[in-house]
């Protein structure tokens, strides 16, 4: 008699980390890769080990409240009652804007949507923003200016497999999203990065501009395109506006002048222009390295200008795109947790948008607050006379991830009341008055929108530990305590998504035609999806751009350099980034033994000559100082690094926080802080025995 077929318990889902959202299957806490288009059966080390956190002894499983300076266990009723009582008192004493909400780019679409609704309807506060402001905001602002809409990659990742040439600026996917690199194998890869990263090692040509000079480099390459007769004139005439005005600013940026500023030879600038123009299928891709600057929006627009001059955006087989970083960095900025935004990528100061969304929510339009402060400005205002005195944090670890982290820690410490909803006791949660233990990726249903604008259903695979609740439960229970009617804040993810569909209908990011059933059936749905009969939009802009006249815009920009230059006291420049083994603030990955065993502490990459001049050698502890603070990190000597540059990963807490150094100077359009360059000094650290 044949044996019965084994019961299949594995659940198809997606990785909890970056915006690639690799397909995987989960059987309990056991991870297996899945043949999904973006990863084609591959996973990085973080993905392979992601199941370990599901059984981690560091998981929070009971609410904590602060009593006599110490966090102690409490019941959910006790914790939520305390939150409601204290926030009600603070709102009564100082007004609705005395309470702020801070979200995250890793939250599901349902959570991001309900969080924005909760802030504006249940709390009535305008003070809501999220950590995606640290990530994709400059690319989003630039895309809206040029194309009329922001979708990081307006084409599927798999299109890159047919690329003949790819220009990759400020991106290191070989470490940050390794399965992505398989899509670049057939292309002539050109990488722009001050560091010789693992991604740069894959390139046929690596350009190493001085930090903060990417915009000048883009101008030099564009100048070469025009001067050498490589401009796609028919595309410029038929599909764009503003080239003549643009050229008046670019004409002064001839490659030899740009070489003096960037250090990239004029010959290499012309070589890049020729390679991109000669290739049949060409893509230009940007990421955080060229975006996280005080002029990051202008930097991205400079690369878009180059792409438009070559006729790439909206052309089949070619294009311009931005590599989103956080797991739901795309969806997280579309549905209302940004200070100036309502669901569907609507603007909160648009009367028609306010009227429509208020109708979906069942509240008067005039009851909705206006735009609030952006993330850094919100954090800087904490505890001030006219700023919030209470803060609710969902999915973010501010005291590690924010620029000028030491100052932000002081700001958080000054609050009258801090609530953190998290799955582990992060460095920010450890400072809270109330900590609410919530479910994580495999313990709940929800949708994510990956870097190519594809909406994915991340399925529940296991039950959460007893005591952990969903963020949706937290928001629903608190809203009820604030007097909101039953049903206005649902706890079921599919029910929330159904409301999100209605709220996004007619917006730029229109999800109204997407249903859980369509996602369960495996349909590949890229927004906009304006009807249930609509197949989705995998490739945007093929017929027209999102401006009213259907044409893209050249945006004149100019090089200004970093907000902070080196001087005699701080002679070096520091840049920050990620390493393969860790993710964001490291609150989760630092709890995974296999990952932490490889990279367990903060380090600083330094050119050997630079280290020697500072009295340092490989393995020494260095003190890295800026005008805002200092950090201690282990020296790694890297001969390929520019002698004027040091690099620090930002995943580590305490005195190893790279963001103790970084500059909170903001981009005027996106309000993105300048993470990628600041002036520093290097010296041996004093080791206390």
UniProtKB/TrEMBL annotation:
GO BP term (any one): respiratory electron transport chain
InterPro entries: Asp_de-COase-like_dom_sf, MoPterin_dinucl-bd_dom, Mopterin_OxRdtase, Mopterin_OxRdtase_4Fe-4S_dom, Prok_molybdopt-oxidoreductase
Alphabetical UniProt keywords: 4Fe-4S, Iron, Iron-sulfur, Metal-binding
Family annotation (SUPFAM superfamilies): ADC-like (SSF50692), Formate dehydrogenase/DMSO reductase, domains 1-3 (SSF53706)
Matching Pfam families: Molybdopterin, Molydop_binding
Protein name, UniProt field: 4Fe-4S Mo/W bis-MGD-type domain-containing protein
Domain 4Fe-4S Mo/W bis-MGD-type residue range list: 8-56
GO cellular component labels: membrane
SMART domains (UniProt xref): Molybdop_Fe4S4
Signal peptide start and end residues: none
GO molecular function: 4 iron, 4 sulfur cluster binding; metal ion binding; molybdopterin cofactor binding; NADH dehydrogenase activity
């Amino acid at each position: 008699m044949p044996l019965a077929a084994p019961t299949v318990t594995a659940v198809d889902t997606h990785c909890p980390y970056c915006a690639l959202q690799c397909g995987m299957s989960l059987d309990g806490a056991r991870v297996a890769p899945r043949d999904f288009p973006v990863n084609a059966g591959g996973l990085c080390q973080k993905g392979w080990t992601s199941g370990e956190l599901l059984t981690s002894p560091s998981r929070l499983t009971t609410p904590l409240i602060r009593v006599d300076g110490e966090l102690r266990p409490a019941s959910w009723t006790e914790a939520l009652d305390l939150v409601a009582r204290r926030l009600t008192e603070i709102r009564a004493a100082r007004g609705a804007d005395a309470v702020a909400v801070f979200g995250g780019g890793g939250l599901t679409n349902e959570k991001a949507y309900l969080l924005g609704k909760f802030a504006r309807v249940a709390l009535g506060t305008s003070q809501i923003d999220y950590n995606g402001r640290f990530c994709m905001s400059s690319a989003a602002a630039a895309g809206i200016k040029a194309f009329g809409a922001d979708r990081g990659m307006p084409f599927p990742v798999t299109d890159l497999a047919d690329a003949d040439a790819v220009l990759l600026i400020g991106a290191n996917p070989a470490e940050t999203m390794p399965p992505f690199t398989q899509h670049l194998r057939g292309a002539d890869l050109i990488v722009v990065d001050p560091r010789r990263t693992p991604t740069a090692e894959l390139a046929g040509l690596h350009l190493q501009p001085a930090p903060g000079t990417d915009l000048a480099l883009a101008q030099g390459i564009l100048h070469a395109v025009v001067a050498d007769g490589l401009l796609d004139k028919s595309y410029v005439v038929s599909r764009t506006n503003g080239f003549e005005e643009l050229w008046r600013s670019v004409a002064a940026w001839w490659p030899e002048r740009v070489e003096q500023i960037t250090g990239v030879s004029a010959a290499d600038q012309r070589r890049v222009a020729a390679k991109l123009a000669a290739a049949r299928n060409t893509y230009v891709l940007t990421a955080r390295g060229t975006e996280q600057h005080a002029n990051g929006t202008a930097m991205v627009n400079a690369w878009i200008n180059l792409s438009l001059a070559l006729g790439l955006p909206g052309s089949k087989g070619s294009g311009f795109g931005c590599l989103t970083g956080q797991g739901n960095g795309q969806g997280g900025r579309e549905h209302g947790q940004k200070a100036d935004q309502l669901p569907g990528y609507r603007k909160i100061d648009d009367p028609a948008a306010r009227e429509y969304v208020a109708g979906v929510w069942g509240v008067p339009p005039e009851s909705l607050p206006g735009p609030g402060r952006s993330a850094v400005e919100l954090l800087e205002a904490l505890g001030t006379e006219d700023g919030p005195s209470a803060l609710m944090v969902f999915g973010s670890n501010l005291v590690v991830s924010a620029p000028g982290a030491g100052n932000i820690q002081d700001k958080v410490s000054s609050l009258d009341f801090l609530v953190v909803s998290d799955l582990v006791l992060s460095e920010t949660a450890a400072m809270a008055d109330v900590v609410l233990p919530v479910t994580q990726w495999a313990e709940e249903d929800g949708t994510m929108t990956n870097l190519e604008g594809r909406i994915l259903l991340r399925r529940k695979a296991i039950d959460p530990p007893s005591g952990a609740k969903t963020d949706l439960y937290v928001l629903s229970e608190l809203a009820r305590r604030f007097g909101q009617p039953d049903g206005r804040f649902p706890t079921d993810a599919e029910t929330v998504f159904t409301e999100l569909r209605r709220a996004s209908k007619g917006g730029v990011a229109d999800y109204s035609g997407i249903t859980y059933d369509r996602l369960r059936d495996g349909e590949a749905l890229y927004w906009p999806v304006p009807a249930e009969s609509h197949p989705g939009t995998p490739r945007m802009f093929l017929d027209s751009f999102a401006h009213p006249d259907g044409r893209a815009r050249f945006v004149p920009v100019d090089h200004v350099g970093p907000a902070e230059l080196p001087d005699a006291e701080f002679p070096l420049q520091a840049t920050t980034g990620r390493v393969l083994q860790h993710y964001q603030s490291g609150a989760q990955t630092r709890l995974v033994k296999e990952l932490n065993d490889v990279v367990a502490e903060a380090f600083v990459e330094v050119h050997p000559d630079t280290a020697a001049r500072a009295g340092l050698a490989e393995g020494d502890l260095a003190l890295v100082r800026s005008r805002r603070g200092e950090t201690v990190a282990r020296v790694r000597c890297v001969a390929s690094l520019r002698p004027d540059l040091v690099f620090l990963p930002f995943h580590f807490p305490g005195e190893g926080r790279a963001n103790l150094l970084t500059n909170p100077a903001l981009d005027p359009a996106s309000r993105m802080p300048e993470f990628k360059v600041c002036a520093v000094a290097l010296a041996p650290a004093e080791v206390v025995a």
